[in-house]
Structure formats: structure tokens, C-alpha cells
Amino acid sequence: MCTERCAKCLGSTLIPLAVSGFLAHLLLFFPGGKVIDNNDHLSDEVWYFGGILGSGVLMIFPALVFLGLENNDCCSLYITKMFTSTIFAVVGVLGAGYSFIISAVSINKGPKCLMVNNSTWGYPFLDGDYLRDRDLWSQCEKPDNVIPWHLTLFSILLIIGAFQILICAIQVINGLLGTLCGDCQCCGCCRGDGPV
């Protein structure tokens, strides 16, 4: 299989994932689907911008590098471009990993909400206990539906981050293979000319 075509396929997969991660994170600024009057009432992890930076903006760079690999004079710059794609793939793993970790921590911690027992804003759940016991959800008074909103969006970011890590890890291997085999014979098979 041609390493350039593989990279292009991986790059085209990263673009919709990056956009989805960006949009999912934007929705976290509207807990329960509503505008809130005080930004201090947002969960701390929303301000870490895991979906916007890690799974969103930072993922665009590897995707563009991967997409640009097929349209090059691979006999002259093939090794350099494949090695560069490997470096960007590692950057992608780090960005997606950041988003994945932030999402996992936030899912375990639960959302920030107005707590029923003392009428203050905080985190009423401990160590993911609300995931096992839905009756605990009544501890959050406001914003309405904040728990399913929080859980759904951070779960989406978690899944997107996991896919992005996998895609970028595949490109690390693909890029290393392209770097090691990087000669004109590899390029000839990409164009369908056969080995040179």
C-alpha cells in the first residue's frame, strides 16, 4: 500500500473529526443548552479548551500535512516529507491525547451546577458516582439538563480524541515506513507506473 495515499486518507478523516470536536466543545459553553449569566458557573474543564485546541485547531495542521503528501515530487523530497508527516502525527497524538484526558477527567468529575443541599455552585459528585447512580442527578438544581448535556458532549470529545489518537498513531507508523522505504520505487507504485 502506498504510504502517501494512506496519509491522504487519514488526513481526510481528521478534518471532519476536528470540526466535530471544535463544535462539541463550543456547545459546552451553553450548559443544558442555555446561556448562563456567570462564566464562573461553567465547569473548569470547559476553560481548558480540550476540544477547541486539542481535537480541533491543533488537529488541522497534521490533517493538512497528510493531505498534501500525495501531490509532491516524491522522488526528490519523499523522505523529508514522510518524516515531517511523522512529526506532525506525533503532534496530533499529543493534541488528541490532551483532549481525551481532559474529557475523561471531566466525565469522572461531573458538571459544575447549583447544588440542592447548600445552594452554592460546585461539583456535587465524587469519582464518577453519578455515572452508576442516576438518583444522584437530583443533587444538581441548575442549569436544567446540565448532567446529560455535560456527559454527552464530553463523551463525544472522548470518542473523537480516541479516534484521532488512533489515526495519528497509524500515520506515525505509516510515515516511518515511508521514511525508511523512501525511494523512487515507492513513488512509482503510487502513480501506477510500477517500480522505476
TrEMBL record:
It is a multi-pass membrane protein. The keyword Lipid biosynthesis does not apply. InterPro entries: L6_membrane (IPR008661). Keywords: Membrane, Transmembrane, Transmembrane helix. The chain crosses the membrane at residues 12-31, 46-67, 87-107, 147-170. Coiled coil: none annotated. It is found in: Membrane. Its main location: membrane. GO terms for cellular component: membrane. The keyword Ribonucleoprotein does not apply. Belongs to the L6 tetraspanin family. This is Transmembrane 4 L6 family member 4. The lineage of its organism: Eukaryota, Metazoa, Chordata, Craniata, Vertebrata.
